[in-house]
Prior knowledge:
A: Arc Repressor Mutant, subunit A; Arc Repressor Mutant, subunit A; 3-stranded antiparallel β-sheet; globular; disordered C terminus; B: about 475 residues; Methane Monooxygenase Hydroxylase, Chain G, domain 1
Amino acid sequence: MTYHSLEQVIADPLFARADLDLRRGRHIGADYDPFLFDFLTAAKPFLDSFYGRYEASLLAREEGYFYLLPDRLAVPPPLGQRKLTAMDMLVGQALALMRIDPKWLETNLRIPDMAVLGLLEQILGEERLLRFIPRRRGRDVDQDARKLREAFAFSVRSLERQCFIKREGRGDTAVIRPLAAIMRFADPVRTSGELDVALQSLIADGQIAEDSDDPDAESDA
Amino acid sequence: MGVNDSSEQSDAPPSVAEVIAEVWHSNFALNLGKEDAAFLAGIHAYLLDAREPGLDDETLRRIFAPVHELAQSGADSEVQRATLTIGRLRSQGILVRTDFGGLASEGEFTLSPLGLALAKSMEKERELTKRNLSFVLMHMRTVLADVLRAAANADSAQEWGSQVIWPLRDIVVELIRMVDQRQRGLDAAHKVLRKEITELVDSEWADAIDSCVAMIRRVDRTLRELNEVLSEHVEHLDRQLFDLAVYGAKHRELPVLLDRTRNQLLRLQSWSARRYEEWHGYYRNVQVFIRDVVQTDPNNLLRSRLTEQIRQFHARPYGLLGVSPERFLHLRDVSRPAASAPLAVPDELLIHGTLAEYAEPPPDKIELAVAALVARLKEEGEIDIVGAVRDIAPDFSESELFRLLMRATPVLLRHGMTTQWVLEQTWSKLSERLHAQSLDLHGRGRAGEPAATPLPAPSEERAQP
Lengths: 221, 465
């Protein structure tokens, strides 16, 4: 489908769905919804100016997904602004790492929940991982394990709502399928430069915000 | 055969316990390693195509050569390993010497019934190919065509049994089982192939692209071909089964057999479609992986950088930004529920586990006002609710007045009724923020008695001037 005006774009029945999904903070890739992805690809030139009026940018990334990013200078951003929590970030980064690990190709990128937690524990160590969850002083192994699982499950649901991942199966057989958008979590390390420089550049672009900037930020629940 | 039965009759079948004891005491045991199994499969494959039913020592050793190459087993030479393996197979009765009734001058080797059974069981797990699938399905079509002809002409029970039921029950089902087993073999082969591709990509990264894509394409093509072959033949077989169903009334076992065969065929077809779809998904994922991961990061550095980023995350935490989902707008502010107040229960009460005395809590201010309103209605026979509330509760706060009206109205309606039907009532001001529509009620008298003044029907009321 080719569009010649914004009016034609808005008249397309897919517009309402795409618009609602984007405003909900979802990432629309070909692996999330191929119809919406094709629609956004064709309509992007007109939607850029449309969302520009809401002081937000419709971004298309190289892996093939779209999302709305609020303008960094808009105070307050008309479409609101949300920042992922530290636990969301850890889970997202682990899943991005697993997506680029050929090992998970064998299972068609279906990753069991416990494998994600296992990878985080392997990289960070149990003690450091537990620092990312709210816990009381002292050590209670069972309690900590339960809280970690709860925090993890909460983050998984948050990532699913924003279409970074899809969930399949239930209970013990539940698996996570990371979508193309999960690669947003690898943005700071895409180039071989210093991590600090890359983070600074992403902050300047309004892609990320440091936790110290906004200590009250919370994931949308 | 019972599990613990020990029959005294000599012609009765032996019990499970007897069989177990017999085999235990015969000291029969199998110890078959990977090397032995591969060698056995090789011997069987050789014998299948050989002109002679046996093979000599030299041929055996030639067959062992690729096994030795695969096993790469330590310091032993190939000759030593071959001697040991042949000895192991012979001592377990898998490989035997025979002179074929004097036909062979020197004793040659061949597989015993045990060796043959083992080799065949391994062969059954081999892959499904377009060739063997077509062959089996074509065979099945031929058998079903014969069955169809026989069903049309069979008269006696014997003809039905030997020409229709037996071929359907045994031949067709066995053929389907063969395809089924080969499917499992193919599944296993694909699993191994996926592992090989993973290892290849992991070790050689960008250099592995061409060979991986070639391997995946080959399997994709094979599965597509198998799917096409199955679709074509299953459709034809299904038609034949449908034609056979016409004779269902002639033999009670036929409908059951047809159903079973049809279900098995559908299962085969669904396996094929599912595997093709799944492999196609795998193919797509590998292509995306090559495009997005391997080609954009030819030196495979992203993984180590991302691992390091996770490791350093606690030192400089940050969060991805996005637009905020719309929030549900409540009509009023949500207030937290009041904290629960702890209730001190005397020890005495806890010991007895019951209340010694029960005291009715005193009525609250609103209950007293409701009772006063009801008393006024009963006494005066009629009441204007809002007017009466003003008289009885002049010092009530706005919130108390609201609660009083909420509670008093249904109670008063139980004792009185209105003649005003659905006419819009005027709003009376009780405070700046609280306005109420009043209601005039007439008392009902005693329970069960009719109302003092009969109420006009709505139509009559509207008709009145």
